[in-house]
Amino acid sequence: MPGDKSISHRAFLFGGLASGTTRVTGLLEGEDVLATGRAMIAMGALIRKEGQTFVVDGVGNGCLLEPEEPLDFGNAGTGARLTMGLVGAYHFGSTFVGDASLSKRPMGRVLDPLREMGVQVVARSKDRLPLSIHGPKATAPIEYRVPMASAQVKSAVLFAGLNTPGVTTVIEPVMTRDHTEKMLEGFGANIEVETKPDGSRHIHLQGQGELRGLSDFQVPGDPSSAAFPIVAGLVVPGSDVTIENVLMNPTRIGLIETLREMGGSIEILDARTEGGEDVADLRIRHSELTSVEVTAERAPSMIDEYPVLAVAAAFAKGRTVMRGLDELRVKESDRLSAVAAGLAANNVRHEEGADWLVVEGDPEGRGYGGGSVVTHLDHRIAMSFLVLGLASGKPVTIDDGRMIATSFPEFEDLMKGLGGMIEPIREEA
Ligand SMILES: O=C(O)C1=C[C@@H](OP(=O)(O)O)[C@@H](O)[C@H](O)C1
Ligand SMILES: C=C(OP(=O)(O)O)C(=O)O
């Protein structure tokens, strides 16, 4: 599996900021993560590759350099938002640009807390890219309650807190992926996490402390990428697939839990801890799936996996109901409507609501396929519908597969290696 995308972004950010050298293995070499690496280089970090290891020489906390050119984050929401937090606490200017998809996504969710800390923002319209930010002489520490379930917002405020005097506190009402907190601790930051009786988490970070590079940082395989061969293995008759080295952090395994509840045969082999994270190998066998109701509480632990869950649901007996999907509307595409449109184009019965989706499955799927899916520059829409095509009666076509390289550059080869028929139709130059 390619390295986890969330952890890979953070490996460049923390490694580039720490003093000393961080050696990272297993990093995802996808376009999104590489954009974050380039941004850190533009601000003074040195990054080189030795064999399979990325060697990152950091600048030291508080010592980033002003970037001379706009920082281009391409398709990468995580990279752009976390870096905005990071540079917001520096008394210099930086400009953020991105592709057509990223330029439509809301940035106000990270800019609002940064403004509270004293950061100036100049955006052409409604806090969308392209935009420029400039930090004050010293940012003011804040206590910030994250208004939506978002690890990116939580992390952006914590990154800003790193170069802010005093204690920055982030309160998250529901737990989201905890990679930033874990890595802050690993890199030596002074951080304390309290879980309150109501389940909310209060994260306190003492600013301006030293971060130290890590001599051996390993990025485990990405469960959000593993989701595609997992669902393919469950829905394609005759499959028996083993996927090695998958991150099993409890904040990331909602899809695996849901598919097991649907009757999916997913065996957890050799569960172990590596570099402070739970990791396992997974054996997946073709299964008869049954519909389930997926509650809104599960959304944060599988937020990027709903498009491919919808594909699994298409082959499950009964009506699968998924609730609490409002955040899907602000991803690389409006994923809720992109999924609904892709299902409609390929004869899968479904209903779309403001923040819910119902998929009515057909385990045989003979009538499925034949449609063309509009991906809207969204890698997960592209990969999900290619998986639908693997088990459908007729082929499924996607309009553009190039974005797959943002998170899973090996996708086509890996799926073909498993026996999947994926044919690129490339236009002659
Ligand atoms: O923090 C992260 O690495 C991510 C958080 C999630 O976004 P939100 O914070 O917007 O939920 C997720 O969708 C994204 O792919 C990666
Ligand atoms: C939402 C995603 O990424 P990002 O927000 O980093 O663009 C994703 O990878 O599914």
TrEMBL record:
Task: Report the superkingdom from the record.
Answer: Bacteria
Recorded catalytic activity of this chain's protein: 3-phosphoshikimate + phosphoenolpyruvate = 5-O-(1-carboxyvinyl)-3-phosphoshikimate + phosphate
Which compartment or compartments is the protein found in? Cytoplasm
An annotated GO cellular component of this protein is: cytoplasm
One Pfam family assigned to this protein is: EPSP_synthase
Q: Report the EC code(s) recorded for this entry.
A: 2.5.1.19
Q: What's a single GO BP term from this record? A: aromatic amino acid family biosynthetic process
Asked if the keyword Cell membrane belongs to this entry, the reply reads no
Q: Which residues form the active site?
A: 304 (proton acceptor)
Residues noted as binding phosphoenolpyruvate in the record, renumbered to the chain? 5, 77, 105, 152, 335, 380
* Associated pathway: Metabolic intermediate biosynthesis; chorismate biosynthesis; chorismate from D-erythrose 4-phosphate and phosphoenolpyruvate: step 6/7
InterPro entries the UniProt entry points to:
Enolpyruvate_Tfrase_dom (IPR001986), Enolpyruvate_Tfrase_sf (IPR036968), EPSP_synthase (IPR006264), EPSP_synthase_CS (IPR023193), RNA3'P_cycl/enolpyr_Trfase_a/b (IPR013792)
User: Where, by residue number, does 3-phosphoshikimate bind?
Assistant: 5-6, 10, 150, 152, 304, 331
- Which intervals hold domain Enolpyruvate transferase? 2-413
Quaternary structure note? Monomer.
Q: Which PANTHER family match?
A: AROM/DEHYDROQUINATE SYNTHASE (PTHR21090), PENTAFUNCTIONAL AROM POLYPEPTIDE (PTHR21090:SF5)
Function of the protein: Catalyzes the transfer of the enolpyruvyl moiety of phosphoenolpyruvate (PEP) to the 5-hydroxyl of shikimate-3-phosphate (S3P) to produce enolpyruvyl shikimate-3-phosphate and inorganic phosphate.
Concerning NCBIfam families, the annotation shows: aroA
The family line of this record is: Belongs to the EPSP synthase family.
Record-given protein name = 3-phosphoshikimate 1-carboxyvinyltransferase
| UniProt source species | Fulvimarina pelagi HTCC2506
